[in-house]
Structure formats: structure tokens, C-alpha cells
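Lecture notes, unit on protein representations.

Consider one protein chain, 289 amino acids long.
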Amino acid sequence: MTDMKQIEQELLSYIPKDIPETATVMSSMKYSLSAGGKRIRPMLTMEFAKLCGGSKDNAVPFACAVEMIHTYSLIHDDLPCMDNDDLRRGKPTNHKVFGEAAALLGGDGLLTLAFETVLSERAVNLNGYEKCVKAGRTLAEYAGAAGMIGGQIIDLESEDKQVTIDRLKVMDEKKTGALIAAACVMGCISAGANDVQIQAAKAYAMHIGIAFQIVDDILDVTSDTATLGKPVGSDAQNKKSTYVSLLGLDECRKISRELTEKAVESLNAFDGDTEPLRQFAYYLCDRQK
């Protein structure tokens, strides 16, 4: 699988040099971008690039851009106006360290830096203008109001309400699945993949995305703060409908396994070595944090 150390080093290399007047917002951006995490999305970008016959190294700018979008979304999700969380990845949330205004702007900074990265001179040199434009549009589409942001507003509007499984699925396809799909598709774009491969990558992403969210819901009930590095029980506290509250733990475990199997089946569209991505799908399903 992809070397996470490479991703960690590359991510911080794209943040502009500090100047005194903007030191606070740059520090806010670095704080959350370097806070660790599974780096699922950049890993998928690079693995799909390799699977489609491309170069992992060429896909690095696209991989970093996806992680910047993901990180900005976490900063904003944790704000008092959203989930109002105090802990993320075992550390105080961004707004607890820098204040709400600097956290908001730090998130905005990472959002815009993502597109600067996709369209950077380095990205163009590695992938060409056409692929960079296509990747940038893909990222904007999946991260925007029709994708991740759309899922977030559904989530907010569902608080204190009993929602259906169908609405929950739509929310998670957008809030979680869309950005994972962007990661997979951008890897395909870097490698010059065909339409069949791109559609298979989307299917893989959406299946593991929903499975990932179901496992998250399970862990919010069964795990603890020390293990997860973030508060548990917040869904119940915020009166959110979840897969667990609607279906129960046993059914959720069954569905997450079925979705994982479907994700693995979608990899049959590729001729390359799919074993790393197969194993990764099972890892996400079986994870304990």
C-alpha cells in the first residue's frame, strides 16, 4: 500500500511559507493538516492511479488536494455552529486552540489551497493541463453542494428528527461517499483510465463509503473516547438518527459486510493487482477505531 510518510511530507509542503501577517491562519491550517488520521482518501487516489497503470508519484498533488478538502471539512464540522466537538484525533479541535474565527479561516484556507494544489505547476508538469482541469472539476463537484456539503446540510437538518434509512443513505453517500469517490476517480484521471474503470472506482468508493459510516455509527456506541480519539455517544447526545438507532448493531454489522463485498466485486473491472484495495476494504469494515 501507499507509504503514509510520503503523504505526510507532501501535504505540509504545499502550505505557503509563513509571513508575520498571516501566521495565525497558517498555523491553524498546519495544526489540523498534520494531526494525523487514517489518510484514507490520499491513499486511495494513489492506489487507483497505480491500479490503472499510472504513477503514484504523479497522483500525489491530487491526493494531497483531497486530504486538504477532508481536513477543512473536519475543522468546520467541529465548530460550535455544527457538531460543537472539543476533541479530534486525540487532540483539542482547531477552534479550541485558535478560536472560532481563525478555525473558520483555517478551513477556508485549506479549501482554496486544495484547488491551488490541483492546478499547481508541479501537478501540471506531472499530469498535464487536461488531467488537472478534469481532476479539479471532479473535486469541486464531489466536495460541493451536490456532494459533501449537501450531505452536511442534510445531517444538520436531520437533528432532533426521525429520518428514514433511505434519507440516511442519501446523506452518507454525499457527506462521506462523495469525497471518497473523488479520491478514487482522481487517481484514475491521473493514470488516464477509461470510463469503465472510472465507474468501477466510483462503485468501490460509494460502497466502502457507506460501510465506513455504518462502522463509525457502530463505534460511536461500542467504543470509547481513548480508543477513537474523539468523543463517543455524540450521535445520541445530538439526537441524530443513525444506522444503529434505526437498525440495531447486528443488522449494521451485516450490512457493512455486504457493502464491503460489493466494493471488492467492483474491482473485477481492473486488470492490475487489486489485492491491496481488496484488503483495505476489509480493513475499513473490521476496524476498531
